[in-house]
Design brief:
- The structure is a single chain.
- The longest helix is centred in the N-terminal third of the chain and has 21 residues.
- This protein is α/β, with parallel strands linked by helices.
- It contains 17 helices and 11 strands.
- The protein is 46% helix and 10% strand.
Length: 367
């Protein structure tokens, strides 16, 4: 919304009633009062079958109607079908399109709910969505399976602000990490071993790679910064204890993006996800901040470039723990090299995401 308004479009952001707290608009900007007039909270829940079946068409039209063009995500296809509205551009936020897959095949109640979600979501996708935009390979393949029109289009995940406020708590964290010679940062959520989320995130690979680096180098001036975020936190803490690197790990509480971006400005390199998929918000935040990063994408350079509609950025595409530790060892030795990679990433972001991507959205919306 912010990028589009800066490009002259009369854009508004309609929010779900159950937005996750640290993803809400006030937690994404230090300048909330400026944008508040263009943010419209709705009385519509994203997901939740009880709510879905309780909504009348009149209610949904009152909450969602009245706009010329809709960009939406989540359970919007099903909701818009019930309202008799059309999603002009659907941007799935989950690998394989949210509400169209099964997580809980062994649990009857959850599995039955997922079958119902999928039924209504697919009806909406097939009948009330004009275009699906994503760079996720699984989502593109699923959309094409159902004969949906697609476009390779990233989400404008990060709006870069020039000014940031720092409260005392945030300043204390920044001052603490600035004392280290090497700061590795991961704000990826943690999942338990036997879950789909774990197979996507694979935080353990980054932790093991960092541990190899510590054990090989003996460094006491290096720190891995993690967030206490996700159902697998205790499992990650146990792994860190087993590897004997507790003194080199700093746990921070889950926090909003505006504070995360302030911390990322002071790191040396970031850990994305190591499960083999294209990246999401965490990596866009590294690029927007001009920081090099690890992310394992199980695609070749040509396939990545095709998804991004541009030559891919320079990043460390690996899930090999020894390779991770070798690169970490090299950063203090060849620091200028990694600073230059970060600067290249920031330029790539500004051209192909950020404002550059916003121009693509404006062209699509304007027809």
């Amino acid at each position: 919304m912010r990028y589009l308004r800066n490009l002259g479009l009369d854009a508004y952001l309609l929010t779900y009633e159950n937005e996750i707290s640290h993803f809400t608009p006030e937690n994404d900007t230090w300048d909330y009062e400026k944008w508040k007039p263009y943010i419209i909270p709705t009385k519509v829940v994203n997901g939740g079958l009880k709510h879905y079946f309780s909504y009348s068409r009149k209610h949904l039209l009152r909450e969602l109607g009245g706009y010329d063009y809709y960009v939406a995500n989540g359970f919007a296809p099903a909701l818009f079908r019930k309202a008799g509205l059309t999603v002009d551009l659907f941007l799935p936020y989950c690998i394989g399109i949210e509400y169209t897959y099964f997580y809980n095949k062994s649990k009857f109640k959850q599995s039955f709910a997922e079958i119902i979600f999928k039924f209504y979501q697919l009806k909406g996708l097939k009948n009330n969505v004009k275009l699906v935009g994503t760079i996720d390979k699984e989502s593109l393949e699923k959309a094409k399976k159902y004969d949906l029109k697609t476009v390779n289009l990233a989400m404008p995940m990060v709006f870069v602000e020039q000014n940031a406020d720092h409260d005392n708590e945030l300043l204390a964290v920044i001052e603490k990490i600035k004392k280290y010679d090497l700061v590795v940062f991961s704000h990826v959520s943690h999942f338990q071993n036997d879950t789909y989320g774990f197979s996507v995130k694979r935080n353990d690979i980054g932790i093991r790679g960092f541990a190899n680096f510590i054990l090989r180098s003996g460094s006491k001036a290096s720190i891995l910064v993690l967030l206490d975020y996700g159902p697998g936190v205790e499992q990650s803490k146990k792994l860190i204890e087993d590897l004997g690197i507790e003194d080199n790990v700093l746990w921070l509480p889950k926090m909003d993006r505006k504070r995360l971006m302030s911390i990322i400005a002071h790191i040396d390199i970031g850990f994305g996800e190591f499960g083999g998929h294209m990246w999401g918000g965490t990596v866009w935040e590294f690029m927007a901040s001009g920081k090099p990063f690890f992310q394992f994408v199980n695609l070749n350079n040509e396939e990545i470039a095709k998804l991004l509609n541009a030559p891919g950025p320079t990043f460390f595409n690996t899930s090999d723990e020894n390779e991770i530790s070798t690169i970490l060892e090299d950063i203090p030795i060849n620091r200028e090299k990694y600073i230059n990679i970060g600067n290249e990433l920031k330029n790539w972001f500004n051209t192909n995401n950020g404002m550059g991507l916003a121009y693509q959205y404006k062209q699509i919306i304007s027809g």
